[in-house]
Amino acid sequence: MATISRNAAAARKAERALIRGKIQVLHVPNLIRLGTREPAVYGRGTLADINARPATKARAGGVAFAAFQSSHEGARIDRVHAAVAEGVGFIVINPAGLGAQGYELALAYALKHLTG
């Protein structure tokens, strides 16, 4: 029952985010080198390629889309806090490459939920 209510709450939050019309995607360490770092392993697609599809869909739906990538933990945390001040309704975190640093980012993200 708790899972259903959490899912329903998440769905309501996502709907409010779309109404507010602002989505922030937060990419984590090392993704800036996609397409050039070991292309045989990671492919030739770049971070810009990854951002293009959701950006296009967001624009088509009248939703502002912003993507941010940093390999610096403090910059990512600052971006979460800035998103709150900017009225961003929904933050998507791409956790690829996120290790032990993720705890601080999770705390910052929790603050976003408390104020959103």
Share of helical residues? 55-70%
Flag low-confidence runs: none
**Beta-strand percent range:** 5-15%
Largest sheet: 3 strands, parallel
Note the topology:
Layout: H1 2-20, E1 22-27, H2 39-42, H3 47-60, E2 64-69, H4 73-85, E3 90-94, H5 102-115
Parallel strand pairs: 1-2, 1-3
Q: What would you say this structure looks like, in words?
A:
The chain is α/β, with parallel strands linked by helices. It has one domain: Rossmann fold. Helices cover 55% and strands 15% of the residues. The protein contains 5 helices and 3 strands. The chain has helices spanning 2-20, 39-42, 47-60, 73-85, 102-115; strands spanning 22-27, 64-69, 90-94. Strands 2-1-3 form a 3-stranded parallel β-sheet, sandwiched between helices. The two termini are 24 Å apart. The mean pLDDT is 78.
Write a brief structural summary.
Helices cover 55% and strands 15% of the residues.
Keywords:
116 residues, 3-stranded parallel sheet, globular
